[in-house]
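Re: the 119-residue chain
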Amino acid sequence: MSNINESLQELMSLDGAMGACIVDYMSGMVLGMTGGGVDLELAAAGNSQVVKAKVATMKSLDIKGEIEDMLITLESQIHILRPTHNHEDLFIYLVLDKSKANLALARRKVQTVDKNIEI
C-alpha cells in the first residue's frame, strides 16, 4: 500500500508526466499534489464538476458499474481522471505532455496507483 505522496511520485515517474493530484470530487479539495503544467488546484475544482456530472448522468440513465477513467485530450496535453475504487468521492488526476506520454502505460499506471493507494 502507498500513501498519497508515494502514489503521486509513482505517477510522476511516467514519461511526459507534468502534474498529478488526488482530489475529493464532492468538495473539489486537493488532498495532495505534485508538478504542474496547469494550475492543479483550479483544474481539480473544475474537474470535480466533470466527475460529479458523469456520476449523475450514469445514475439518471441507470447505467450499472463504475467509471474506470475519463480521458480529456487537448492539443498538447492529455488529462486522465480516475475515480478511486477503494475510497469513495476521490479521484486521481494526471496531466501528461501529449508529445512525450504513452497513453496505454499512463492508464495502466493510474490503475495500479488506484489499487495501491492508502488514504
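The mean pLDDT is 94.
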